[in-house]
């Protein structure tokens, strides 16, 4: 793990292109230096490295600056259940607040840079900057809503509906950040998608082949092109442009 101070990097929240996702739009300019001071370090991790482990003491929350991260829960039988995927500008580690320990493993899907925010300092700052407190509440609410909708989908949707929704949601999140949303490299593998959607990897492979044969997507290894978004929305059972998964992290 390579940890660099923001002073050494010469870039704080006020100059980061992802500020609009981490910070509320209404925050006063005079409040930005205090936010910059709060983000003490940026962590550089290689693909497959742990940001934190399940059971470790909770002391910080994290925001992805670039790269991507998965969270997974370790079961007593040695298996792992993928709980979510995080893209640039998304915040993770919040599940540790209640139990005072992280409730999952956070593992990079690719080389990544993450902002580490000591939670005690963040909490103190939210009392001084009401807009920041409001943003934090919105992030918590989105996370709860996403969890509820995800588990509802696991119990009520067919595998192809879940996969179509997953691809739509990923596309929407990329578009929100100004990235290419119709052609992109999937940061996660099929096994990880299968775990997250609660199906077997063979089911994901068959569904992707079915989508490709139907002209909905083109896929080569992890490079995917979403050809027919309308068709994907139809399969997911949702009307454009909204979708059941609309939140910042999945």
Automatic annotation (TrEMBL):
InterPro entries: cNMP-bd_dom, cNMP-bd_dom_sf, Env_Response_Regulators, HTH_CRP, RmlC-like_jellyroll, WH-like_DNA-bd_sf, WH_DNA-bd_sf. Residues 23-93 form the Cyclic nucleotide-binding domain. PROSITE patterns: CNMP_BINDING_3, HTH_CRP_2. Signal peptide: none annotated. SUPFAM superfamilies: cAMP-binding domain-like, Winged helix' DNA-binding domain. One of its GO terms (cellular component) is cytosol. GO terms for molecular function: DNA binding; DNA-binding transcription factor activity. Keywords: DNA-binding, Transcription, Transcription regulation. This is Transcriptional regulator. Pfam families: cNMP_binding, HTH_Crp_2. Residues 157-230 form the HTH crp-type domain. The keyword Iron does not apply.
């Amino acid at each position: 793990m390579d940890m660099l101070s923001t002073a050494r990097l010469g870039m704080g929240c006020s100059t980061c292109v992802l500020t609009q996702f981490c910070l509320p739009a209404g925050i006063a300019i005079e409040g930005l230096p205090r936010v910059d001071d709060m983000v003490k370090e940026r962590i550089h991790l290689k693909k497959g490295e742990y940001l934190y482990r399940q059971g470790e003491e909770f002391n910080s929350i994290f925001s992805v600056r670039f790269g991507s991260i998965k969270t997974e829960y370790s079961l007593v039988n040695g298996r792992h259940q993928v709980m979510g995927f995080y893209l640039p500008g998304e915040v993770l580690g919040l599940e540790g607040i209640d139990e005072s320990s992280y409730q999952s493993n956070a593992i990079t899907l690719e080389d990544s840079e993450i902002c580490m925010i000591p939670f005690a300092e963040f909490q103190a700052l939210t009392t001084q900057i009401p807009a920041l407190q409001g943003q934090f509440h919105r992030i918590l609410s989105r996370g709860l809503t996403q969890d509820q909708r995800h588990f509802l989908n696991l119990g009520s949707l067919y595998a192809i509906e879940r996969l179509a929704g997953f691809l739509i949601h990923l596309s929407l999140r990329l578009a929100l950040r100004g990235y290419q949303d119709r052609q992109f490299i999937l940061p996660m593998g099929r096994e990880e998608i299968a775990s997250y959607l609660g199906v077997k990897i063979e089911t994901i492979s068959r569904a992707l082949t079915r989508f490709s044969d139907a002209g909905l997507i083109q896929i080569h290894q992890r490079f995917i092109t979403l050809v027919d978004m309308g068709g994907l929305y139809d399969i997911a059972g949702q009307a454009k442009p909204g979708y059941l998964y609309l939140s910042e992290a999945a």
